[in-house]
Amino acid sequence: MKKILVAFLFLFTISTVFTGCRDEKTPEEKVESAIEDVKDDIEDASDDVKDAAEDLQDEIEEAAEEAGDDN
Question: Which terms are listed as keywords in the entry (predicted)?
Fold first, then answer.
């Protein structure tokens, strides 16, 4: 009976240690994290627009070359 009680106490202690060590963010840290996420999303969107513009430029150049070849 004593061994079972000790085992339960040990498991309770271990579970308390792991659940009590959560890293909780302050409101300021949450805001900073959200701002960084938005900044990353804007950078990704900017890169996508830049890539699309380069693709469009390539297509325009190809169309110009094809039009020049037809004449």
Answer: Signal
